[in-house]
Amino acid sequence: NILPVAMWPTHGGTPEQCANARLIAAAPDLLAALIGIEERLTAAVRTGDSTRIVRALEVTRAAISRARGAK
Q: What's the angle, vertex CA 10, arms to CA 8 and CA 15, rounded to 5?
């Protein structure tokens, strides 16, 4: 049997299924954000550039927001 693990609210999904759907949809953005964060933080540590750290935080917060369902 195949059980639905991810469904949009408009298709009758449970809260857990809706959360799973949001995470699946956000997965590419989350991976890209993590890769970018790692690159920025590595460079910031080498150079002491706080601007890169601030940008990494902005990307992180945007990815978290998207995973939580914001557009």
A: 50
Q: Find out whether 22 and 36 touch, Cβ atoms under 8 Å.
A: no
- Enumerate helices (H) and strands (E) in the chain, giving the number of each: 2, 0
According to DSSP, residue 50 is labeled H
Cβ 16 vs Cβ 3: under 8 Å:
no
Name the nearest CA neighbour of 63 among 38, 19, 14, 28: 28
**Which whole-number Å values give the CA distances from 42 to 1, 56, 65, in the listed order?**
46, 11, 23
What are the pLDDT digits (tens) for 41-71?
888 888 888 888 888 888 888 888 877 777 6
Assigned token pair, 65: 């927001």
